[in-house]
Write a structure and sequence with these properties.
This protein is an alpha/beta fold. The protein folds into three domains: about 1-135 and about 330-350, ATPase, nucleotide binding domain (Nucleotidyltransferase, domain 5); about 175-325, ATPase, nucleotide binding domain (Nucleotidyltransferase, domain 5, 2-Layer Sandwich), CATH 3.30.420.40; about 370-570, Alpha-Beta Complex (DHBP synthase), CATH 3.90.870. Helix content is about 35%, strand content about 20%. The strands form four sheets. Strands 13-21-20-14-15-19-16-18-17 form a nine-stranded mixed β-sheet, with helices on both faces. It has a five-stranded mixed β-sheet with strand order 3-2-1-4-5. A five-stranded mixed β-sheet has the order 8-7-6-11-12, with helices on both faces. Helix 6 (about 125-135) crosses helix 14. The protein is globular, with a radius of gyration of 23 Å. Residues about 580-585 have low confidence and may be disordered.
């Protein structure tokens, strides 16, 4: 049985394909269209999923959609009516997409795909819950989902056993941790549904204790109960009836909003820190209450707030939970997977034993050696080719030791927003200047942004104060841990200002080539860690194809591209070809 999951028309459109209960392909649409956080119907992702399975649309048994549009439309109308006439402009801006797309999703699916069978509509937060629990190794788990808003829900607590998922408690719109975080993201001059992680990265530069006056300002506008539930004073917000999110009262309390691309002051840093503190306080109180209610040692976490890796790294130390699972795309992109899995296991086959849990994120497109060679030859790109992996690894290690920046393109593309060794930029973490080199010459982004360390799982506990046994979300770069103080000077390029690192661990059985490269680097450098950052530049999605990878290298300060068994040196190739119209794409 094939079930296709679809998420679209809000942000991070995606498609996922489940075959007999196992996810065999998944991708966000942005990787194909090159529009970051693309909201459009994921036609390219769907085509890829069908091609990966070698089937056509007529062989799909069910399509599962990631929300119930009529329930969501009910909430939007409620917002408009409650705040009319102040909500008129929001209504004016929102209605075209509802009329042309969101209320016509059944017809759009049938028309665009030529699909004639059943379409299942599943609640948004149930899709979040399923995306984590039904990919987890657990047979029983407590579940917390937190995001901006689904239909009405902004937060849900529940539990699951076997294939049955129960949502027991809900917080409803407009009270939302996700929308609070997005409001402050907008206030600090960053883009909503895109740059919340920048605020998280900025927060360690601020005061992370009770001396921070902005923490107390957040406490003033959010009434947090002992069980983690909360009410927000909505006089400080206007996202429920305007396009802009913070109200005049919010600005009166926190000061003038930062203009985009302007300087970042200590006030901005302290606001980010206060926000992160209040977010963690809410999450940890909710989780302690959830454990008390369920008495289950395993936790599954999902929703956009589930990508807050700083909070995630504190869960096991500050709650009674013994293990936690978060799948790689915890945000809205991951709901297409949750929809497909919920349809298969919870609705259609409730007594079927679940397949293997998600061990890797490598679910996207792959390019064969022959396809890559044809691309390189067609475009007269100069390259070296390696017959043996050991020789390739040795030469790449030599390049890294010489402080070169490497584009690393291998196998199937990752699922989710993190580069995990398939579409990564790699460099030397022992060089104290490497963070600035990468930020200014390659990534073209803000100086305060940290870079993540990748380490083989068996070396992680030597360098990091991490939970033991090491939880699976570290494989997906979803947990921040303190780096042990004695290693701060050894790996300065991945040690954030507060001494932490957003850790990625790698197991040999999951990615043997990547594992071997890290080990070999450690053999010659004495430090078995690399910088791993996403293979893209600011404002663009992570690269998907050989064309995207080569174009990215030629437009940045990346020195070498390792793509499959081919090594390409940027300085050996013409600098004016990477964006030429005559350049042959894949």
């Amino acid at each position: 049985m094939y079930v296709l999951g679809i998420s679209c028309f809000y942000h991070d459109s995606s498609a996922s394909l489940v075959k007999d209960g196992k996810v065999i392909a998944a991708s966000q649409e942005e990787r194909f269209t090159r529009k970051k956080h693309d909201i459009s119907f994921p036609i390219n992702s769907i085509k890829y999923c069908l091609e990966e399975a070698k089937i056509n649309i007529n062989q799909i048994d069910y399509i599962a959609y990631y929300e119930k549009p009529m329930q969501k439309f009910e909430r939007v109308l409620h917002q408009v009516i409650e705040k009319f006439p102040f909500s008129f402009y929001m209504f004016y801006k929102a209605m075209p997409s509802w009329i042309s797309e969101k209320l016509r999703i059944r017809k759009i699916i049938k028309k665009k795909l030529g699909y004639t069978k059943d379409i299942l509509f599943i609640e948004h937060h149930m899709c979040h819950a399923a995306s984590s629990y039904l990919t987890s190794p657990f047979k029983e788990a407590a579940i917390l989902t937190i995001d901006g808003v689904g239909e009405w829900d902004t937060t849900t607590l529940g539990y699951a056993k076997d294939n049955k998922i129960i949502i027991s408690k809900r917080l409803i719109f407009p009270h939302s941790v996700g929308l609070l975080y997005s409001t402050v993201t907008a206030f600090l001059g960053f883009s909503v549904n895109n740059s919340e992680y920048k605020v998280m990265g900025l927060s360690p530069y601020g005061r992370r204790d009770k001396s921070n006056p902005y923490y107390h300002k957040f406490k003033k506008i959010i009434n947090i109960k002992e069980d983690g539930s909360f009410e927000m004073d909505m006089d400080y917000f206007c996202y429920h009836y305007k396009v802009y999110m913070p109200s005049k009262k919010f600005i009166g309390e926190f000061g003038p909003a930062r203009k985009k691309e302007s300087g970042i002051t200590q006030r901005h840093k302290d606001i980010a820190a206060g926000l992160q503190m209040i977010t963690e306080e809410i999450i940890l109180k909710m989780l302690n209450h959830l454990h008390k209610e369920t008495n289950i040692p395993n936790l599954c976490l999902a929703g956009g707030v589930g990508l807050n890796s700083v909070a995630n790294g504190k869960i096991l130390k500050n709650t009674p939970f013994k293990d936690v699972f978060i799948q790689p795309d915890a945000g809205d992109g991951g709901t297409s997977m949750g929809a497909a899995l919920y349809a298969y296991y919870s609705l259609l086959n409730p007594k079927t034993e679940r397949k293997d849990f998600m061990k890797t994120a490598y679910l996207g497109p792959k390019y064969s050696t022959m396809e890559i060679k044809e691309f390189l030859d067609k475009n007269k790109i100069k390259y070296s080719i390696y017959e043996y992996e050991k020789e390739l690894i040795k030469d790449v290690v030599d390049l890294l030791l010489d402080d070169n920046v490497i584009g690393w393109f291998q196998g199937r593309m990752e699922w989710g927003p993190r580069a995990l060794g398939a579409r990564s930029i790699l460099s030397n973490p022992t060089n104290p200047e490497m963070q600035e080199i990468l930020n200014l010459k390659v990534k073209h982004r803000e100086k305060f942004r940290p870079f993540a360390p990748v380490v083989c799982e068996d070396d992680a506990k030597k360098y990091f104060e991490c939970d033991l046994p090491i939880p699976r979300p570290t494989d997906f770069m979803l947990m921040v841990y303190p780096i042990k103080k004695q290693y701060h000077k050894e790996i300065p390029a991945v040690t954030h200002v507060d001494g932490s690192g957003r850790l990625q661990t790698i197991r040999k059985e999951d990615n043997p080539l990547y594992y071997s490269l890290i080990k070999e680097f450690g053999k010659y450098s004495g430090t078995p860690i690399l910088i791993n950052t996403s293979f893209n530049i600011r404002g663009e999605p992570i690269v998907m194809s050989p064309y995207h990878a080569y174009r990215c290298m030629m437009g940045t300060g990346i020195d070498y591209l390792i793509i499959d068994k081919f090594l390409i040196k940027r300085s050996d190739n013409p600098k004016d070809i990477w964006d030429s119209e005559k350049y042959a794409k894949d």
